Amino acid sequence: MEGMELAAFHIISNVGTAKSLVMEALYAAREGEYKEAENKLIESRKFLTEGHHSHHQLIQKEASGTQLPFSLLIMHAEDQMMSAEIMSDLVQEMIRMYQEINTLKGTYSK
After folding, report:
1. pTM of the full predicted structure?
2. Binding site for Mg(2+): which residues?
3. Calculated CA dihedral for residues 5, 60, 46, 84, nearest 10 degrees
């Protein structure tokens, strides 16, 4: 495996790990473990960034005049990267919501 295929799998692997960590962050927040949730989000960003680096390299190649072939594998990798980004944004907001809900629960139970 080389070139485009390797880049695609590198993107898919990294953003897949990022998505898993984002979901782990959400599950931790649901249990009230906000520090663990934050740590999972920080770790997920590292993997997402790594996927972006691979993607950026492909964009640079094409921008410099190298014709890159159409690839369903690259299209899938880009789709996975976009869904990981969207999930990360939504989960961050959901974690804030869990925190607010738990704060309100504490206020009303006193």
Report:
1. 0.89
2. 79
3. -70
Q: According to the model, what pLDDT value does residue 83 have?
A: 97
DSSP-derived secondary structure letter, 110: -
Find the domain containing 34 and state its range. Answer: 3-108
Indicate which CATH number applies to the domain containing 76.
1.20.58.80
CB 28 within 8 A of CB 40: yes
Tally of domains within the chain: 1
Residues designated catalytic: 76
Tens-place pLDDT, residues 60-75 = 999 999 888 888 999 9
Provide the token pair at 52.
């972006």
Residue located via tokens 């925190």: 99
> Which is it for the CA torsion 67, 13, 26, 46, positive or negative?
negative
Cα(69)–Cα(52) distance, rounded to whole angstroms? 19
